[in-house]
Amino acid sequence: AYRVGDDLILDGQVTGSVPLECARCLARYGHPLRESFRLVLEPAGEREPADPEGAAALSRYGMCLAEALDTGWYRGSEIDLSGFVHEMICLALPVKPLCREDCLGLCVVCGTNLNHVTCDCKRVWDDPRFAVLKTLNRES
Question: Tell me: the pLDDT tens digits for 81-110?
Fold first, then answer.
């Protein structure tokens, strides 16, 4: 952290591991997290954010962020970065967590984790809701 005039510049990195559950095989794994950030905060002075969330953040954390999450305002002598770090972690989490890219998942028939054991189940599943469509093809 350093100052340029009255502005505060915060350069850093959030690192760690977040416990997640694989979307394919349901195994728990530690997802590595490494997110760099650069945050430029200017003094709020007497200005108040237009949105109620921003005003609440400015009074609670001593800072509020702009839309881009890399600029914002600060007020007071202390800034609580916990809300900012929480937001960074949430944005860094994968939409579909996978223990590994080539995860085979679970067998749809017996539930075996196909990453560890192969099974002899028939993988083709005929949806009974579409069985009537097969008869239409045969009658024509």
Answer: 888 888 889 989 999 999 999 999 999 888
Phi-psi region of 121 (alpha: psi -120 to 50; beta: other; left: phi over 0): beta
Q: CA 120 → CA 109, 114, 131, 139, distances in Å? A: 10, 11, 24, 34
Span 33-66, pLDDT tens digits: 999 999 999 898 888 888 888 888 888 888 888 8
- Compute the distance between CA of residue 107 and CA of residue 105 in angstroms, rounded to an integer: 7
Q: Token match 């237009």: residue? A: 50
Q: Taken in order 51, 92, 86, 78, is the CA torsion positive or negative?
A: negative
The C-alpha atoms of residue 114 and residue 126 are separated, in whole angstroms, by 21
